[in-house]
Design goal:
6-stranded mixed β-sheet, elongated, Rossmann fold, about 325 residues, 2 domains, alpha/beta, single chain
């Protein structure tokens, strides 16, 4: 729960202050009763002590004051509602380093399993595109609502080659623009952002990579600038551990064992530049958890609803209850 005017909650300090004033008044009242020295006459005048009942109406009034202060702060409930539509471009690294076994059974197998999870987590109305990249970039599945088509393409992913991360991000931006009809051929401005300021992004890029950019035309941050200008946030996931190694084939066809730590710094910079978020996923379970969280973030929007009426209604009920009990028990209101 959030508040539009949270500073109004300072008024809740009145409640304990008024409670203290009431307690002090009750003590003075008790002292006055003790000064009535003819106790036999007092017993005949007062039929019976109201006991705890006399404290109930004032307590209800104090709670009503608290409810009024709560109402003045204008409380809001944050609820998640499913997006009706959207586009997610899943960009997956399939370079040779994805053969590394520091993530069981391999980085590639873990990435495939997690990608299935993300696809399943997205609402049915979402369009999903799959792009793979190694030394080059391949758009395996254009944006589609057919999840089975995406699942089948994920199963065919196989690691080989270098890492053209920058080119993959740039290709993903092109896919987004084409999907939203703003690629120039549709009559739109190819440089215009896909959303206005403060609007929710109608499309996002989910980038998974396990190594540093090694080939390609674009550097990752240059491509990220394209995504930022287009208004497309990039959620970047770094897969693998710093000590990961993989067997790769060099240009001469010889097998070599090389260290393949994920380039966490670059992925964090890409996410920050585009208004997305970066994650580190050293293992299979962490990667699946991240993709489930991404499905929740991408597939739902937060809606804030003001619920001041609830506090006002509660205050009215408390005042009415206190007044009713005062009339029934003591023949007075309040």
């Amino acid at each position: 729960m959030t508040f539009l005017w949270p500073w109004m909650l300072l008024g809740l300090g009145l409640v304990p202050l008024l409670a203290g004033v009431y307690a002090l008044a009750q003590r003075r009242r008790s002292g006055y009763a003790v000064r009535f020295t003819n106790l036999d006459l007092l017993a005949n005048v007062v039929e019976g002590s109201p006991g705890w009942r006399r404290h109930v109406p004032p307590t209800l009034y104090l709670l009503a004051i608290a409810a009024v202060v709560f109402t003045l702060a204008r409380p809001q409930l944050v609820t998640k509602t499913p997006r009706q539509e959207g586009t997610v471009v899943l960009v997956t690294d399939v370079s040779g380093s994805m053969n590394a076994t520091d993530v069981s059974p391999t980085r590639m197998a873990a990435a495939q399993e997690a990608a299935h999870t993300l696809v399943d987590e997205l609402p049915e109305g979402f369009r999903i595109s799959l792009i793979s990249f190694s030394s080059g970039v391949n758009v395996l599945v254009p944006p589609t609502t057919e999840k089975e088509q995406v699942h089948a393409a994920i199963e065919r992913l196989a690691p080989l080659g270098g890492t053209a991360m920058g080119d993959a991000i740039a290709a993903a931006v092109d896919v987004v623009r084409a999907a939203l009809g703003e690629d120039g051929a549709a009559g739109g401005d190819p440089t215009a952002p896909i959303r206005g300021e403060g609007e929710a992004a109608p499309a996002v890029i989910v980038l998974l990579s396990d190594g540093a950019n090694t080939v390609g035309t674009y550097q990752p941050l240059d491509a990220a600038q394209l995504a930022a200008e287009a208004g497309v946030p990039v959620y970047a996931v770094a897969l693998g551990t710093p000590d990961g190694v993989a067997v790769v084939v060099d240009p001469q066809g010889r097998q070599r064992t090389v260290r393949v730590p994920p380039d966490v710094e670059t992925l964090q910079a890409v996410a920050e530049l585009t208004g997305g978020r970066a994650f580190e996923a050293p293992g299979t379970s962490e990667l699946q958890s991240i993709y489930q969280d991404l499905g929740d973030r991408i597939g739902y929007i937060e809606k804030r609803t003001e619920v001041s009426w609830a506090g006002a209604g509660l205050a009215g009920v408390l005042v009415l209850a206190g007044g009713t009990l005062g009339l029934l028990w003591f023949n007075r209101f309040p």
